[in-house]
Structures are given as C-alpha cells and as structure tokens.
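Comment thread on ticket #2218

A.B. wrote:
> Attaching the input chain for the structure job we discussed in standup.
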Amino acid sequence: MKQPENQSRKYEALFNDIDQGRIKVPQFQREFVWTKEQTARLIDSIIKGYPVGTFILWKTRERLRHFRNLGNVELPEPPAGDSVQYVLDGQQRITSLYAVRKGLILTKEGKEIDYKDICINLEMDPEQDEETVFPSPPEGAASISVHELLDGDIAALAAKYPDNLNRISQCQHLLTGYDFSTIAIDEYPIDVACDVFTRINTGGKELTLFEIMVAKTYDAESEFDLSREYDELIESETDEKDLSSAGFQTIPSVTVLQCIAAQIAEEITRKDILKLSKSDVIKEWKTVKTGIFTAVDYLRTHVSVRVSRMLPYNSLLVPLSFFFIRNGFQPPSPAQDRWLKQFIFWASLSNRYTSSVETKMATDLKKIQHIVDGEAPDYSGEELKLDLEDLMWTKFRVGDAFCKAILCLLAQQHPKSFLTNADITLDNSWLKSSASRNYHHFFPRAYLKKRGFTADEANALLNITLVDDFLNKNVIRAKAPADYIATFAEKNSQLGVALHSHLIGDTVAFGIESNDYRRFLRARSEWVLQKVDEILRGEG
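C.D. wrote:
> Ran it. Output below, let me know if you need it in another format.
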C-alpha cells in the first residue's frame, strides 16, 4: 500500500471537488449533526488562522454507497472511471464548510436551518476580538453573511458595503487563502480503509462486515442497495415474500453475507467475503435470496423449525441455502432428505458452530455437495455418540444449540395441547427465555423444589414440553404430575395421544402416576435417544 500523502488545499479547490462529485461522504458515516453555532465557531477559527484539524480522504476507484444530496443541493455522481475521495475523517467540518459556501438549507428534526444566516460582525477585528462569526446576524451591528462574502464579487460587495470594504477584503482573503490540511490514502483495500476509519473515529463504533459490504456493493446505476435488500428480505414493504411472514425475522445480516459468499466462493471467511466483487454480489443476489427462502421452507416443513428462535444455529442457513441452489431448487429426494436432517442434527448436537464457523463451513459445504450429488456425506472421525445419563441431566438453556436441536426433535412430533389435542403454535416472541410461554416443565419446578431437587435438576432439558395454551400453566402451576394429568384426562379422552406427541408414553412406565421424576427423565431420554440415533444413522 502507498504511504499516506499530505496535501494542502484552498477553500475553492476543496469544494470544487465536492461540486464535481470527486469528494463524497460514505453512508457508513453518521449523518451531519453539527449545529450552526459549531459551524460559526469553525469559520471563526479559520479566519483567525487557527488549525482546524486534518481531513483524511480515501482515494479509490471503488464506488461506495454515499450521501447523494446535502440539504437543498443535489450532488453529482463522480465522473465515470475517475477516482473518488471518500471522507474518512472530518465529515462534520467539511460538510459545515460546504453548507456555508453554498448557502444550504438543511432540515433537522423538522426545522429548516439556513446557513446563509451565519455572519461575520464587520465591526470586530478578527485578530483582536474573541469571536467575530455568529450563527445569525448580530443586532445593531454591521455584518455580512459568510456565504455572500465567499460568493460575491468585489465590485458588488463594494457597492453594498462601502464603509466596510477593507474588513470584508481582509476576511475574504483569510478564508479563501487558508491552507486546509488533507491526508489522502490511495487505493487502500476497503477493509483497511474501514479499519482506518474505525481507528481515527475512536468515539464511534467499529464498522461491521455488513456495513462495509453495503458500502462496497452499492450501485447507483442498477439501484442496488444491499442494506435495502436485506431489510426487504426480512420484512417487505410490498406483497413480496419475506422472512418475517415465515417467522424467521431474527436472521442476522452476517448470515446473509455468508450465504452469498458460499454461493459465489464456497468460502465464508471475512477475507473471502471482502473479496467478493460488486458485480458478482448483484448478479447472484436473487439466486441467494431464493435459496434462503427455500431453505427456510424446508426447515419449517421437514425439520419442524417453525420459527427462527428454534433454529440451533443461524449459520445452518448457509449450507442449506447452498444445497437448494446447487440442487436447482428441487425438493430433496427421500435419501437427500435423510442426509440433510442427519447433517442438521449432527452439526447442532455436536455444537459444531459454537466456534470457528468460518473454517468449518468449507468442509461442511463439501458434505452438502455430496448430498447434492446423491451421495451420503462422510463423518469418519467426526461421529457423534450421545450418553443416556448425560442427556437425562442436560440443563435446559434457551440459547444452546444442543437444547434447540432436541426441541426441534420434539416439535417434529407435532406436539398437541394436553387440554384440547390441538396442534401447538410456536412463536418467536414466546421463545426468548426459559420462562417463555412455549416452554413448560412437565414436573413443575416449584413442585420439584419441595421434593428436594436443585434448580438445575428441575430445569433438565428432558423435563421441557412445548405448549401454547396459557391455560396449561394456569391449571398446572405447582401441582404434582399425577394430579394435573388426572384433571386433563377427565376433560380430554385423547390425552394419551397428546402425551405421545410429546414423546411421553404410558403414565405408569414413565413414572407419572407415582410422581417419580428420575424415572420420567430416564424413560423420556431413552425415547429421545432412540429418535436421535435414527436421524444420525441417516434413517430418520
């Protein structure tokens, strides 16, 4: 990379570049927030010859998403083929100076702010007085708008301000002759330029990978804006399909980037994502979007991941969308369906994506390609074997991938209400914490506490059933299972069917009638383990 280049620029030269579209403010910068008082103080500092900081500009042929307009002025697009200089540091200052130079009218919080009002008090000496520039004309004193001073010719000013021409000439010379310090970093890679931005803006937050890619892939000609496309993917403002309508509105932007990278490069590391070309991302976006929708449909209908909060890992959308794209968006064959489920549960129950997701994904995409090709993926050396005793006492944690995988297995059984035998409805808003309405401890925790069980023992994963009827909790409360199940049995002649849908069998064999918690956990764990083994063998 080239060393930063120090330059001095005059007022006119700096703002001619803005007028011609050669200097732009990238959209990852915050919006213009300075007040007129701050702008007036900046102009005053320039007139006094004080240092006002350095503008750091990134010179590149990349075309980033940027602010297209400023107030009532429409800024031109940069000339085709020319380099653009994006402001990395000094955005508030350079925008303030431009607003004054052009006499802009900006709207903030519903109020119009006219920068033509910023004035110089002509009765004060900039070399002697503390402040000579004010956000509005001072009362009872001769003054001139800074915009008029910079924009008017000397003859017109002499006719209008004959008694103050010397002061006007002095201030005009001080402003137009000021040497603004700039540092240009030339053709740095976008991730390095963004790192520079983050380091010099110590008060701001680090740019995310998504913010960088939004800037990099923005295309004015085709009107492609990755940020807008992602928002539409999550929740469309039109009648188009979106993830919210499928209950998958919590899918993060980084997962979408990984889906794009998997399709284009078959690698999803940060480095590989940053290497993606704008043209490839734009070209593949609709394909990737369709792949994500198809993967979500499969998860909902074949794996019973009804909502995104039940998805063990968001990253699972990457190999699944990859599969459906490579499979031509065709439904999986029976064998492919078994292998996909095997992969999903293998990855989830092994906590595979808890760390090093990027490096593991390359291997996993090869497994998925085998499935596309009609071949069983190879798990040699990566086999997963679950222990019954460990499963019995696994603690329920709502955000844990292993727990979510078991909950998905329970959801696959189409659990029914103990009271009405109606199918359970799962909702993202009910799945945020272990106390949410969809989660019910079959042996109530308050009941187990009275029986001497610890909080962790009572919160065993296999003590969880999926419910959607608040009445269940109202009726159950801290009652013994034998008592509340007997109550439900009186009202629901098909209670055995409902219990079976939760992988709970005969009430005697499962220790329900005797209120035997350990027996219940062991019996249910054995049944769950049987189901898991079938899936991991590619038979489920």
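A.B. wrote:
> Thanks. Noting for the ticket: Confidence is low (pLDDT under 50) at residues 428-435.
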